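Thread amino acids onto this structure.
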């Protein structure tokens, strides 16, 4: 279904993140009908990397559409479902500009509804991290920002237009956070001056970027344009559908585009599921098909599996079909992009996790509770690997038969056709089917 022939294309990851979504978004954005690329969830805890002619460009809060601007105009949109940290956002803009990428109000729209991560959110995050055993976050106070927003104590980008109102709005969350900092953690309170100083440092620069993305995006659809929604994080990290509590703070499945940028999920015509040929996960939390031997080190090294935002080494697992089947049930896509298959060249034996055994019995669907997951064992199937270097291969027929068979097996649970295969980090290292 389309809206006046405009289309929404969604790019998302059903598993644990860092699967190379940015490269797929970048590839799709070469289509001249693409007018906008929107981030609708998460904050600058996401890290998206694109390699253009050997140069690595990483973005965190700004959609990777800004990079496509080097060739043709694409509007990047930070939707209201995101949270932004002004200091980090402007630092990101500066680093993009240093690479010759223009970031101006004509090509970047920041929703006036986007919640701000301020000094006191960061102070609370730091206090919690030093006192708490959960070291699974990127320390960017993303969850603190969403949490205070849900307590009706958020401050949104559009509030900056009226400084008096802004100043009033801060009082409540500041008092709340300071009470926790002082009484729970015995720390020094954040002063209002500190918060206002951060805001005033960026306010003038920010105002020209602000607007109502709902109007802009729905207008583009009426003009028969294509909008790409760039998912951040991943399905298994969704706070409701994923492995709670080791999840991210914002929703990650297709429905999130509705509240995240005001686009109706019914306008999605291409829902591209991006999966890595193997699995990786950064930080704590279950990874049932985790590899615990030197094969994991080999894959980590070859695949450069270190967090884009934090540099933390990622844990490595076999491709997981239980996750794939969950995705096919909860949020089936229209096509599948499989990335990083080049990394598995030479890996012997090659395995795939086909099922989980819970206390010795096969389970029907991905479990909801940590307790169940604690008792899950992977059922692994062995497949034939390949040794031919497939880096940079651009046609399916050039792939060894064993690689083709492996990819077909990875795709099976998703119940949708393979449309792209990543054979290296560079923009050009891709098979399009
Ligand atoms: P995202 O968070 O899903 O956008 O993932 P990232 O942008 O962090 O991508 C993870 C890493 O994989 C980046 O360094 C990419 O350059 C790299 N990458 C993406 N696709 C491929 C691929 O097909 N092969 C290889 N070897 N690396 C890839």
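Threaded sequence (433 positions):
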């Amino acid at each position: 279904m389309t809206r006046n022939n405009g289309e929404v294309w969604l790019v998302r990851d059903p598993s644990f993140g860092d699967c190379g979504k940015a490269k797929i978004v970048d590839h799709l954005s070469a289509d001249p009908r693409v007018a906008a690329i929107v981030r609708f969830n998460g904050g600058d805890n996401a890290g998206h990397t694109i390699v253009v002619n050997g140069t690595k460009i990483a973005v965190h809060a700004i959609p990777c559409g800004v990079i496509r601007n080097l060739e043709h105009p694409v509007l990047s949109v930070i939707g209201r479902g995101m949270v932004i940290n002004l200091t980090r956002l402007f630092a990101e803009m500066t680093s993009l500009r240093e690479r010759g990428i223009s970031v101006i109000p004509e090509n970047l729209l920041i929703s006036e509804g986007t919640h701000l991560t301020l000094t006191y959110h960061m102070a609370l995050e730091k206090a919690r991290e030093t006192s708490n055993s959960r070291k699974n976050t990127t320390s960017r106070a993303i969850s603190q920002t969403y949490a205070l927003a849900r307590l009706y104590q958020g401050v949104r980008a559009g509030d900056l237009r009226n400084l008096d109102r802004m100043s009033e709005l801060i009082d409540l969350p500041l008092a709340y956070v300071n009470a926790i900092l002082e009484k729970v953690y015995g720390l020094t309170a954040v002063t209002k001056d500190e918060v206002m100083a951060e805001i005033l440092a960026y306010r003038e620069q920010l105002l020209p970027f602000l607007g109502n993305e709902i109007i802009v995006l729905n207008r583009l659809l009426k003009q028969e344009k294509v909008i790409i929604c760039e998912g951040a994080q991943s399905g298994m990290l969704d706070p409701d559908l994923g492995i709670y509590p080791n999840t991210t703070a914002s929703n990650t499945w297709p429905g999130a585009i509705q509240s995240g940028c005001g686009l109706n999920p019914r306008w999605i015509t291409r829902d591209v599921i991006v999966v890595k040929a193997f699995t990786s996960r950064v930080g704590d939390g279950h990874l049932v098909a985790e590899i615990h031997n030197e094969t994991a080190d080999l894959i980590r090294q070859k695949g450069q599996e270190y967090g884009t935002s934090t540099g933390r080494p990622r844990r490595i697992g076999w491709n997981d079909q239980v996750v794939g089947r969950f995705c096919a049930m909860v949020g089936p896509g229209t096509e599948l992009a499989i990335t990083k298959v080049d990394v598995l060249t030479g890996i012997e034996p090659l395995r795939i996790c086909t099922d989980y055994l819970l206390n010795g019995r096969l389970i029907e669907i991905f479990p909801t509770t940590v307790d169940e997951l604690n008792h899950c064992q992977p059922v692994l199937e062995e497949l034939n690997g390949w040794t031919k270097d497939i880096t940079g291969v651009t046609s399916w027929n050039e792939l060894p038969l064993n690689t083709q068979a492996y990819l077909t097996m990875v795709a099976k649970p998703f119940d949708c056709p393979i449309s792209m295969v990543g054979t290296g980090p560079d923009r050009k290292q891709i098979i399009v089917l």
